[in-house]
């Protein structure tokens, strides 16, 4: 497939400018280049002040999802009288809430101050999680899980916007890998915390059941961190506490190479239509759905997978922790290698292939092979590298504020659909082996590998088409195109990361 000049959309001279352009006009009226030392100094300041909060919140985001899995082997199902497939539906209902608000939430991220809107949702999700400690039956648990999904829907697309706003395109894969990698850290902490609560209360008479205490502790801690996020996290470079007025301007200048500016609050129908018509949007969506059918199943059933392999309930909590280490290391290493070698797809596919190997082993090994199945489970935890790579593609390769939020919303909607379907593959009648679910995981991840390679080929072809256009003797670069809120198809200067 060749990409000709006509595949690059024509520039629109009346496009509304980016927030950065208007800010520069008020501050100094011109944009200057940074030297390497200044750029490195700013990067260290930004990393030091922003990454810890992004990592902590994203880790809590995953911990709050997996708390249900820990609780499933701590007495939750018998205490609230779950029967049949009700536990499966508790896993899926979370994503119905997520799905219901994903696009409106993404639009609100564009319209309102990014950090403040994110903080509100973080605080509300923490309070909602704590409320799970009070549920008495399936109906109450389902309501809490639904609203938990509603409030958590803002986190991933919001963090992708933070990353694209503050980091250059060759820094974004590593930073996304770091904050997403705290899913693994949360898995370690969650497993140890759940094990500690389960063992500490074993044989003891307690005021509340151990699993209720787990929800209460994690929910209240999330509220505290959400308040800290509200106070400290900046909406953009213009209201940041940790930079001087001069450095705020330089922080915008350093991301000029992204050809994306720092955002525009106006909804543009032309960008919305372009997002819907861009084949890459749907290639992303296919991956998000197919890749998260396994995620939805494993996230809600990993404690039971380990327990059914011959371990006690307490051991299943503790032995889940190394899986978190595999996930964190895979994501961080994949992110740094992607940025270093500028080969995001190929590097991320290594982790996905390792995860696929683990899924094949889970499907092949008998329950009696406890150690082998546990090792296979650990291998599956390397699989998120490709999902994170595509998430970072939305930051680097999708331009135009409305288009970016639309593509991010579609990506996360597909993510929800996959996670809704995932728990349904773990049917009670298939327990304890869950062979159909394990085969489904293998098929989904295999299809995702093919999809990743198609995406890379398509972007490579588009880059060739843009290069041909730029080499045309009649081509004229639009001045300050990086701050005019152009889409990736409208801007020939934007080169896709591969």
From TrEMBL:
Any one of the GO CC terms: membrane
Residues of the Major facilitator superfamily (MFS) profile domain: 50-498
Entry keyword Nucleus: no
Membrane topology: Multi-pass membrane protein
One Pfam family matching this protein: MFS_1
Organism superkingdom: Eukaryota
Broad class of the protein's primary localization: membrane
Key words of the record: Membrane, Transmembrane, Transmembrane helix, Transport
Cellular location(s): Membrane
InterPro entries for this protein: MFS (IPR011701), MFS_dom (IPR020846), MFS_trans_sf (IPR036259)
Gene3D superfamilies, sorted: MFS general substrate transporter like domains (1.20.1250.20)
PROSITE patterns from the UniProt entry: MFS
Claim: Membrane is one of the keywords in the record: yes
Stretches that traverse the bilayer: 114-135, 141-164, 176-198, 210-232, 317-338, 345-365, 371-394, 406-422, 434-459
Molecular function GO labels: transmembrane transporter activity
Family as reported in the entry's similarity comment: Belongs to the major facilitator superfamily. Allantoate permease family.
Name the record gives this protein: Permease of the major facilitator superfamily
Source organism: Byssothecium circinans
């Amino acid at each position: 497939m060749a990409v000709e000049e006509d595949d690059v959309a024509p520039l629109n001279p009346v496009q509304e400018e980016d927030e950065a352009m208007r800010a520069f006009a008020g501050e100094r009226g011109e944009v200057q280049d940074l030297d390497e030392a200044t750029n490195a100094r700013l990067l260290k300041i930004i990393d030091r002040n922003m990454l810890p909060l992004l990592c902590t919140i994203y880790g809590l985001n995953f911990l709050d999802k997996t708390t249900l899995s820990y609780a499933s082997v701590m007495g939750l199902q018998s205490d609230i009288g779950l029967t049949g497939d009700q536990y499966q539906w508790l896993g899926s209902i979370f994503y119905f809430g997520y799905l219901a608000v994903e696009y409106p939430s993404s639009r609100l991220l564009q319209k309102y101050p990014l950090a403040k809107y994110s903080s509100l949702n973080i605080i509300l999700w923490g309070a909602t999680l704590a409320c799970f400690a009070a549920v008495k039956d399936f109906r109450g648990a389902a309501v809490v899980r639904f609203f938990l999904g509603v409030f958590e829907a803002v986190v991933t697309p919001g963090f992708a916007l933070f990353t694209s706003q503050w980091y250059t395109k060759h820094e974004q894969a590593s930073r996304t890998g770091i904050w997403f990698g705290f899913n693994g850290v949360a898995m370690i902490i969650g497993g140890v915390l759940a094990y500690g609560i389960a063992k500490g209360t074993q044989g003891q008479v307690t005021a509340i059941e151990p699993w209720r205490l787990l929800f209460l502790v994690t929910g209240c801690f999330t509220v505290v961190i959400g308040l800290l996020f509200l106070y400290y996290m900046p909406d953009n470079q213009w209201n940041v506490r940790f930079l001087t007025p001069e450095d705020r301007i330089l922080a915008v200048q350093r991301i000029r190479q992204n050809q994306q500016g720092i955002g525009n609050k106006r909804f543009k129908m032309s960008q919305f239509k372009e997002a819907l018509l861009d084949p890459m949007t749907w290639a992303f969506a296919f991956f998000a759905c197919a890749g998260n059918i396994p995620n939805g199943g494993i996230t809600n059933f990993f404690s039971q997978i380990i327990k059914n392999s011959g371990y006690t309930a307490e051991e299943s909590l503790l032995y889940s922790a190394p899986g978190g280490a595999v996930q964190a290391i895979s994501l961080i290493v994949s992110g740094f290698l992607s940025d270093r070698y500028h080969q995001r797809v190929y590097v991320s596919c290594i982790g996905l292939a390792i995860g696929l190997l683990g899924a094949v082993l889970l499907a092949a090994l008998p329950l009696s092979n406890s150690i082998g199945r546990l090792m296979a489970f650990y291998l599956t935890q390397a699989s998120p590298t490709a999902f994170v790579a595509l998430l970072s593609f939305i930051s680097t390769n999708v331009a135009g504020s409305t288009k970016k939020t639309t593509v991010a919303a579609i990506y996360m909607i597909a993510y929800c659909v996959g996670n809704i379907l995932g728990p349904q593959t773990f049917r009670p009648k298939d327990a304890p082996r869950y062979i159909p679910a394990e085969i489904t995981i293998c098929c989904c991840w295999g299809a995702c590998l093919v999809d990743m390679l198609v995406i890379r080929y398509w972007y490579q072809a588009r880059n060739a088409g843009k290069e041909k256009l730029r080499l045309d003797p009649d081509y004229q670069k639009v001045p300050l195109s990086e701050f005019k809120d152009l889409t990736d198809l409208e801007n020939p200067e934007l080169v896709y990361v591969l």
